[in-house]
Design brief:
The protein has helices at about 40-65, 75-90, 90-110, 120-145, 160-175, 180-190, 195-210, 210-225, 230-240, 245-260, 265-275, 280-295, 330-340, 400-405, 405-420, 425-435, 445-455, 460-475, 480-490, 495-505, 515-525, 530-545, 550-560, 565-575, 580-595, 600-610, 620-630, 640-645; strands at about 300-305, 315-320, 380. Among the domains are: about 50-65 and about 80-110, no CATH class; about 580-645, no CATH class. Strands 2-1-3 form a three-stranded antiparallel beta sheet, with no helix packed on it. It starts with about 35 loop residues before the first helix and ends with a helix. The protein is mostly helical.
Length: about 650
């Protein structure tokens, strides 16, 4: 007797088919304006120096001999001798020579890639002859530009996509590349320092890496630019409490609650602030006010947390919260859910938070979710009139929602926000209140948040236990499966991590950190030499939230499968999105070597070395092996020399 199911017991989300060609996922864009690279910048500097020196020499000549011309050849030689003697006597000859020497050294290093001496005198002589000819030509070019009456064309600066920079930063945080992430945050602040949201995001990142002083300065800048930014006020008050500046923190917390009296998280965090001072009366007053506001929320809400893992404003994490009432039949509820499922997920973008984190109201424990890293603004937009949707089915029934403890719900909601902004001490206090405020077992969301807390602290075994408890309550929680995959990944349990990631991606509700799950799954498949499957996962990540990392993954996977054309297309796209990645340049070097383009390979390798390619990388050994097949080839003679310059 055999039994066959027509539908899976756990509903699964069908994966859409991928295109056959990588180029179909690359968006149409205008021609990228040509930028000055290292070699061109060095040449420009050489021309500018020669033009400046020639102008100074002309002024010295006119001071000595006036504006009249020389009579004959002998007169010209005499004036030249007198001018050189004058320049040597006043030290200007040495000054001009030093200025020119630095410019020549820059040209040699950037254009020719030579940073060391020559062991062969013949090679050295040939190089000097070639260099002299080249510099003489460039000298005439510089003099022509200096004496030309034509104005040089003005270059329009390329606009900066600040949301894309935020996506790159959070992606770097996923793989704990904090140096790269900080650079992206600094680029946002440098280009949009007048936007308080960018300072706030940088401050949240500083909390992640433990730089509290720098985080406080960033939050001060954010508040100075937007004094009604509730998340910044709350975090600044929290840092004041950590620094035991309670008077200052009390004023900031009071400002946050008076600016938005309906903000649950603001009231709860103010209560935590008083708890640190053992002000029991004020503490309890704030908690009761938070509960009172929570009880007052009866309308259905549609929540959108801005700028999460899906790409910093490109594809936002969405959470739908249903307020199931006892009135009405189950058929009516399902009909409303079906109508809501047709709506598209909205993405919130902007320079500042339009609403505050305290507006996450009336959430069930399993639905009040957030990313496992900070959102771009830690803000929540509330759409009371939005219809329900079938994308995020509630994990608790309406009756369970009615029995939900309001005090626990308030602390769970606040703990989720605090984990988003890496305020671990305050988040732990909230989770402690959840345990002590109710006699019933903790809800599923408590175990998820406790797992996030353990993940932040590196306690991966405890996080795995918490996620196991959460999945016993809700086996269809894609968020729990995703976090479980990250936990196994950190523990080095890659087969278990692969199963967890694949499970979370098949569930109907996508996890909040889907981009991170795709990248980690692709990395696991690549390490297992399943290049075709790894390419598929990277392409899915590219389709949702393209970045230099995702396109580099596609390019490397294609290279391993021998698809050199597809690999070059993907690597070039990765280079457009991030031209400071040494691995992208290194694999472009390999592709150029494989396709018989030694000059382009040499140029790509120069940029790889310049951007920090290290000797221990796998791609370096592949380049060396590829060079063994070209030994004795004059066209490849500079590449081994460049490999010796790796750090």
């Amino acid at each position: 007797m055999e039994a066959e199911l027509l539908k899976p017991l756990v509903p699964q989300r069908p994966l859409s088919a991928l295109a056959q060609r990588v180029s179909e996922y690359i968006p149409q864009r205008a021609a990228v304006p040509r930028r000055e690279g290292g070699a061109e910048r060095a040449l420009t500097g050489f021309r500018d120096v020669t033009a400046t020196i020639s102008g100074s020499l002309l002024m010295e000549y006119r001071d000595m001999f006036g504006w009249g011309g020389a009579g004959g050849g002998a007169d010209i030689d005499e004036r030249k001798r007198q001018l050189l003697q004058h320049l040597n006597s006043n030290g200007k000859y040495h000054t001009f020579k030093e200025q020119l020497k630095h410019a020549v050294v820059g040209v040699v290093r950037e254009r020719y890639g030579n940073r060391t001496g020559f062991s062969d005198s013949a090679h050295c002589h040939a190089f000097l002859s070639s260099l002299y000819t080249f510099l003489s030509d460039q000298l005439h070019v510089g003099l022509h530009q200096a004496t030309s009456l034509d104005n040089p064309p003005e270059t329009t600066p390329t606009p900066v996509d600040f949301d894309l920079l935020k996506h790159f930063a959070t992606e770097a945080e996923d793989f704990q590349d904090y140096q790269l992430a900080e650079r992206h945050y600094q680029e946002r602040v440098a280009g949009g320092g007048h936007v308080g949201q960018y300072w706030y995001d940088y401050g949240v990142f500083c909390l992640l890496i433990g730089q509290l002083d720098k985080a406080e300065q960033c939050l001060k800048e954010a508040i100075a630019l937007d004094q009604k930014m509730i998340p910044a006020l709350l975090l600044f008050g929290m840092l004041s409490a950590i620094g035991e500046r309670f008077d200052e923190g009390s004023e900031v917390m009071e400002l946050a609650t008076t600016s938005d009296p309906s903000n649950i998280i603001a009231w709860c965090m103010r209560g935590l602030f008083y708890e640190m001072q053992t002000e029991r009366v004020l503490e309890e007053m704030c908690y009761e006010e938070a509960v009172r506001v929570w009880r007052g929320r009866k309308e259905r809400t549609y929540l959108t947390i801005g700028g999460g893992r899906e790409g910093g404003g490109r594809e936002e994490d969405t959470i739908r919260a249903r307020d199931s009432h006892r009135e009405g039949t189950r058929e009516e509820e399902e009909e409303r859910d079906g109508e809501g499922g047709e709506g598209e997920r909205e993405a919130t973008t902007g320079s500042g938070p339009s609403t505050t984190p305290g507006e996450q109201q009336d959430l069930s424990p399993a639905e009040a979710s957030g990313t496992d890293e900070p959102t771009a603004s830690s803000k929540v937009e509330v759409h009371p009139e939005a219809p329900p949707t079938t994308e995020a089915p509630p994990t608790t029934s309406g009756d369970e929602r009615e029995r939900e403890d309001p005090r626990s719900a308030v602390f769970l909601q606040t703990a989720s926000f605090l984990l988003d902004v890496h305020a671990l001490k305050f988040a732990e206090m909230c989770l402690g209140h959840v345990v002590t405020s109710s006699s019933s077992p903790p809800p599923s969301l408590y175990h998820l948040l406790a797992a996030r807390l353990h993940l932040h602290r590196g306690h991966y075994s405890q996080a795995r236990d918490c996620l196991t408890s959460a999945l016993q309550t809700d086996i269809q929680s894609s968020w729990a499966w995703s976090l479980l995959g990250h936990t196994h990944y950190q523990l080095g349990e890659f087969p278990e991590a692969q199963q967890a990631f694949e499970r979370c991606l098949l569930l109907q509700t996508p996890p909040p950190n889907q981009h991170s799950a795709l990248l980690h799954l692709a990395h696991i498949l690549y390490n297992e030499k399943k290049f075709s499957q790894a390419k598929e996962m990277y392409l899915r990540a590219c389709r949702a939230s393209p970045s230099g990392l995702t396109w580099r993954g596609v390019g490397v996977a294609c290279y391993k499968m021998g698809e050199l054309g597809e690999s070059e297309t993907a690597l070039c796209e990765a280079n457009i999105l991030n031209n400071t990645d040494p691995l992208t340049w290194a694999y472009l070097t390999l592709v150029c070597l494989k396709t018989g383009r030694p000059v382009e390979a040499e140029q790509a390798l120069k940029f790889a070395v310049k951007t920090g390619l290290r000797t221990g990388e796998e791609v370096v050994e592949e380049i060396r092996q590829e060079m063994t097949s070209h030994s004795g080839d004059h066209a490849h003679q500079h590449i081994p020399h460049l490999l010796t310059q790796l750090s």
